[in-house]
Amino acid sequence: MNNLQSLPLFLPEWGLLATILIVILVDIIQFHRNDRIAGRWLLWGLLITFGLILFQGQIRITSLFLNSLALDPFGTFFKILLLVSTFLVVVVARLSRELSEVRMGEFYMLISIMLLGMFLMVSAIDIIMVYLSIEVVSLSSFVLSGYLKNSKRSNESALKYVIYGAFSSGLMLFGLSYLYGLTGSTKYYQIAAQLQHLDPAGYGALILAMILILAGFGYKISAVPFHFWTPDVYEGAPTTITAYLSVAPKAAGFAILIRFFHDVFMLPQDAGMQWKALAGLPWPQLLAVLSVVTMTLGNLVALKQTSIKRMLAYSSIAHAGYMLMAIPVLSRDGIFGIMIYLVMYLLMNLGAFFVVIFVENRLNSEQFEDYYGLGWKIPYLGVVMSLFMISLTGLPPTAGFIGKFYVFAAVIKAGPAWYWLAFFGILNSVISLYYYLRVVRMMYLKGERAEVLESPGRCFNVILTALAVPTLVLGIYWAPVAEWVRQSLLFFTQ
Amino acid sequence: MEAHILSWLIWLPVAGIVALTLVPREQKDVIKVIAAVATGLQLWVAVILLMKYDSAVGTYQFLEKAAWIPSFNIHYTLGVDGLSLPMVILTPLLSFLAVFVSWKIEKATKGYFALFLLLDTGMIGVFLALDFFLFYVFWEVMLLPMYFLIGMWGGPQREYAAIKFFLYTLVGSVLMLIAMLALYFTSGETFDLITLSQTAPEQLQGVTWWGFSAIRVIWIMLFIGFAIKVPIFPLHTWLPLAHVEAPTAISVILAGILLKMGLYGMLRINYGLLPEAVWWFAGTLAVLGLINIIWGALCALAQKDLKKLVAYSSINHMGYALLGMAAVVAAGAANGENILSAQAGLSGAVFQMFNHGTISAMLFILVGVLYDRAHHRDIDGFGGLAKQMPIYAGITMVAFFAGLGLPGMSGFVSEFLSFVGAFPVFKVIVVLSTLGILLNAAYFLRAYLKIFFGPLNEKYADIQDINGRELFIVIPLAVITIGLGVYPSPFLNMIKATLNDLITHIVQLGGAF
Predict the structure, then answer these.
(1) What is the reported pLDDT for A387?
(2) Chain A residues within 8 A of B143 when measuring between CB atoms
């Protein structure tokens, strides 16, 4: 579809663009120095964008802007996921104490630009668009992670993020240029078609290109060995942004990863993913090893942390590893598993981070020791935090179990050759139990019953309940989510 | 209620939890009464179930089936047969009594009983579920309340004990998860245990993975999962710690019911779905049973802590059940189709599961009674209590005698049946196992002697005898123990039809042996 025809189908992004402009304008022209107003406009804008996505409804699967972007249920699924997490994070950002000390106008602007970038990321089917959208997301997140100007840690985190980010996107760009050189096109489906007739002499270049591109994607989902930025950035950034980084860009990263591998390397005539186009190296096995290393490293290092924020950073690396398990077997079930995992992960991980934000507001600390006896003092907080921790471990009947269940099922369905992968997956679940339960232990097993009980306050109560209830309910009855994911599993493929 | 009697059993405790949330936490008596009523009603329903159960039929009764997640073929399927019925009776019984054991809990009473009722739901759900997925969910649901109950209300080393328990059991259950999914995808994409027991032996026949028989691989994964729960040597190290650190009521539940889940799981899932591997594994199982018997007894002999002694005696008692389970191979052609031995062994195992439930519960409660008064459990720290606590001494004698398998007590019957069943096939192992009985007598009698006879320890000159509440808890268990010891046939008749079906199933689908 050409540019003009594409414009009306670009509806949600229009809404988001308008939101960004309004947020900037409101922030500039406001007379009384209330920088919170922009946030309210942003929330309304997000709601309207959500409405526009729903309004688009049952879309015709097509490509926009001369095959740069795909319009398909798969992209819409991720857009909704991203919108929901942005909405929640913005609401909590308005309650966060560390952010109350800085001007918030640019914060809202940056976060909405980042969201637009991720919208483009999840629908990109052109390698130039891939690069541009990833850069939009990265640049805004660099600034956001350094948003606490007066905090040394925050500045350090931004700097590290920039260096790693620039390096890995440079690598990726280099890889993409090789891909272009080999196939003479920037469009996924043309690349796919060209790769089938690739001269064997080009395999070396293709392998190099793949490794470099993987570095770029791996950096976005913080897979080992491209994870080094994660703990420091997560620890230094404002906790609200950490929560956001651990969920939204990761989801977008998985979307782009799935789309890339699916569109470029899945041959239309194959029923399943054969990886035929990728001769030369045992790619599935390599990716499987990558996933095992990712989750094992994330879990083992998380064991040793003294800061809950840092622990959650490593745990998010581990979760990326669990989701990566389903990539090597890239079947419909694998993608299904990743998508359902992401839904559950959004709920429980944001929930856990919001509890951390609340405690930080209160005690100005995120150390394990400061959770001492918290469950006895603020019972509701203790209950929901325990629920999120159990869910992150992946025990039934919580949402986290369902996510893991589908990923494991996809791996095991792929046949006995992959059982070892599932085995490492479960071994890691057991390890993760130890550090997740450490939080619970601190909150309940230590300390004594307090005489005066406290409540997290109305706003936090509402938002934590909004995350905790689905975390539990989706663990018991998740058929609607499964159905939604199933319907979203339609790609644009030409 | 008739139609959904099994659902009632599962959801009554949950209703109790809902009721608990409505009560302010200061109203401790109301909280306890609610817990007692919820478990009491559950026990009542279980008794109705027992009366309505038709013991002439071996297959599942009171079946309930509802679609849960159709896209993954997951169903809410419940049913009861002769294998699960004893445990379905035992669970509410011990839960009900354990509420009274916990009557003195003062710390966070509301949380304690809410978790306790959740534990109850998880346990009974495991015994009633006939869908593997549902079984797994209940199996896991139980872990978390147990962790808190040990970790928050336990003894000095409670945190370590709780996390060790949790980690061990989780290793087992995640192995079970893989085995479950492997079964699902290789045997017709279903979790239904009734269907799987037919399809799995056929579909997996002759399939090999990495050069090993698929049936054996799955068997091993499941077996490790269940063995941790039983626990079987060398996976038992969590048990003494958890038992000793847990509050009395939770030790009762741990020993009385949780350990049986491992055995139940083996009989229901390993034996039911993978009959071929039974023949392959029975010898190992018998040896493991022997090790459990001897090792448990030797460790118990070495203990100074009374509760630890009882904990190790549990390991020993589980060994007899394993031996009985192994005896099922007597029915094979190679062993002369000795169906009678197979029956004796299996019914001995199931009977032992039930008996150990009542006996170990009694033992733990009695240890708790003493601990409440003396605040220690050191066997050498007492002496001459028989004069001060005559009733307690009498009841304890019943419990200890039951524990060491004295004829006339139910434990004797089940141990005897296990031995009789296993003897034709595993002669040497059975002969060695009887040594365990001797050791049992040694440690129980030694402990009894040191606590109740000899010169009176002056510290306990004015110790109180067992009180009414405690008697109310122990007497029913003592009555059951003696009653079934003298007249076990009602129990054995109840489970007979199902066990015969199981033996036939194993012989027919298990391949030629």
Answers:
(1) 92
(2) 395
